[in-house]
Amino acid sequence: MVWDDTFSATVSGRDEPIELVGTHLRLTGKISLGRFGRLSDLINASSGYVHVHEARLLRRNGDPTTLVLPELMVDQDEISFIAQTEAPPPEPDAAGGFIEPKFGTGAVVRKAREFVIFTPGHTVTGNVHVFGETDLAGFVDATDPRFVPVTDVTTRSLADRRIISHYPFILINRTQMIAASEIGRHGDIAPEDIPDISPEHAPGP
Question: Is the CATH code 3.30.470.10 the one for domain 110-183?
Fold first, then answer.
C-alpha cells in the first residue's frame, strides 16, 4: 500500500505534534492523521515517505535550529523512531491502520515488559506491550506492526552518551532495530547499567 493510495490531501484530520529521529536526522513537526484516530494506525497503514508539516530541524542534542520547512517528506526506512509527548485516545469511528487481535475472557492479553533496543544511533529503553509468554526471539522475529509502540521511554545517543531524552510514547521502526534484550524481568540488568558501545569507546580487537 502506498501513501497516495490511502491518504488524500482532501481528507481532513487532527494534526499531531511529533518528534522524528533518525541516525542523522532529528526534527519536530506535525503529521495530519487524516481519517485515522491514532498516529500508530496512520504510520502502520502507510509505506514510503512520511509527510511532515512545519518541520523544524534540531541539533543532535535536541536544541532547535532556525531552519523551518513548511513541508518535508521523510523516507520511513531512515526513521529510527517517532515520538509523541502526548498520545490522545482515538476519535469515535476513526479508521484503524491495522487490526489487532481480539480476545475473549480468560485469554492471553498484552502485558508491559521492559526492553532495551539498539538502533544505529541510539539505545532505547522502555515498555513494550507483548502477548503473554512471547519470548525475545518471537518479539524480534515478528514483522507486524512495522512501527512498535513503546511507552515510558529513555533514549541515549550512541554518538554522545550525554544526550539523553525522555518520552512517554514512541513508535520504533523494526527495520532500525539492530539488537534487543528484555531487561528487569529477572533482575539481570538495569537501564543505567547499559555500557557505552559508541565507536569511540568500543573495545579494541
Answer: no
